[in-house]
UniProtKB/TrEMBL annotation:
Protein name listed in UniProt: EAL domain-containing protein
Residue spans crossing the bilayer: 34-51, 57-75, 96-118, 149-167, 173-192
Keywords in alphabetical order: Membrane, Transmembrane, Transmembrane helix
Gene3D superfamilies in the record: 3.30.70.270, EAL domain
Positions of the EAL domain: 387-637
Biological source species: Methylobacterium soli
Amino acid sequence: MLTLKTFLKPFTVPPDAPEMHVAQIHALAKQAPLFYGVLWINVAILVYDHLDHCPPWLTYLPLLLFTIGCTTRGLHYHRLSRCALTGEVAYRQLQTLNRAVFAMFMAMTGWSIVLTHYGNAGTQMHVMFFMTFTMLASIFGLMHVRSAALCCATAIPVWGLYFLSIGNTTQQLIAGSFLVFSSAATYLIYVYHEVFFSLVKQHAELHRLGSENLRLANSDLLTNLPNRRSFFTHLDSALAESEGRALHVALIDLDGFKPVNDTYGHPAGDAVLCEIGRRLGSLAGPHCLVSRLGGDEFGIVLTGLDAEDGVAEFGRAVCAAVARPIVLAHGVVQVGCCVGLAGLGESGRNWARLIEHADYALYHAKAQFRGSAVVFSRELERRRDWRDRVQQALHQADFEREMRVVLQPLVDAEAGRIVGFEALARWTSPSLGGVGPGDFIPVAEGIGIVCRMTEILLVKALAAAAHWPPGIGLSFNLSSQDIAHPQIAARIAVLIRASGVSPARITFEVTETSLIQDFVKAKQTLDALKALGCTIALDDFGTGFSSLSYVHRLPIDRLKIDRSFISEVTENDTCRDVVRTVINLCRTLKLGCVVEGVETAEQVSVLTNLGCEMMQGFYFHPPMEAEAVDALLARTDRIDALLAAPARAA
């Protein structure tokens, strides 16, 4: 039984080669119409030669059957040539082909043998040559399908042995030659099958590698999300197909991701990115494309959200999904994000403009507060235009001439005296007029000129402080780019020595946001400033990520409670409790505590009862010009004189 199976195996179609099956059907379908056409012509000529020698049932009936068979099979394969076949369909087609070929050539052999009993020696030679050339042509025509070619070849021994047994010498010699040539053709069937199978395997492998390369070129290797290239390709296609449909783009930037990398290592950061990608994918749905654009940035192409409220709600849902705690192997972490969204309504059908609008909305969201989502609007477009004008003016600005510092008092409410001043930047542009620090400082950071601006402002602030009594301090703000600059501490040391102001009188204020950008470099800078003898204050305390971690890992001497907690401290119990907690924390850690944004006497009273001593705000005095500070300190350092002074904001 095993021997019989081995013998019959070449006559069957192997079920485990779907790529081979599809390739065989496609190759066969291309030449099937020609094959069946030539076969029908040869049959018709043979029938015509036997019309005068055979009864009609041996001529017209076979011709009719061949006509039906060749026409239906030829049309069938013509249709297959235009279809996308699966491996399963191709497998069934090949099995049908084997059965059809075997039945057709056995029937043709029997019909030809019967025809040899009619006619004369010439018609017998015609029959002999008909079978010889038809079988050989069929074998080579079916060469792509070994099993079908071998099924065709099964008729060769029957036909050859028949003429060897009954034919004359010439016919026997022709039959012998036919058998020898057929044997060689059968061998070639095996050789060609191996070659064709190898080519199909190579083509399938090349197709697989091409598909894999295409996937790699368009996928993010870490998250398996589409990458930046795929995002823009999809956006371009979506814009082309978006006639009459809503289309929006969301750009997402993570907050607090770098500390995860710094604290837990890059594997933990990779796990966070994968989890964020999974959450965004489940949130966006099947009709939206979520991509990782690079680093901790993601992008989403949104379809189907028509109303602006729905787009804003989606942005808030993204922020909420990202903000959920993430469980890692070494602990639980939490990051946030800001989202900028823009739609076709404001951007037209230009994808570059759409991305530009979404990017500006993201920039605006990050400037507001963490965890916010902003949809680009006409109002934002006006702000962007203003920002562009500010940027152009900054490029052309003479900082020495146009920049100045104003000084806001820092008071000890319990002692009733002024203890220092915070230097605040002011810029008067020849083309724009007075520009607020909230407008020009973020732009200066964006175009990389804030460090140069910082040095000029610090020189001016130190020059002002040089005229003050020794007990009056100076607070000065450093940006994220300042504290990340490798040479900033050395430059500041040179400027302080040149000014003659004692480093002990100088406090440098940094925000939690600035520390997040590059914690290692920030720590190096702050350590160097601390070594000079300067004081370090953490500004806007309580509004950033992992606030307490900075307190114990950095050389912090003072905390400044953000004004957002002070505005409602007289009415809101929660705000009052937060302030009390921070004040107690400072006492425990032996840190100074400053409350900024004090605007009313009621706030002063509540803060004093909570134990706060150092305060700053418009209640005591708005920022003052340097000359006004000199005049004030020349008379007294008491708060009473400060409160009695004209409250003109500078």
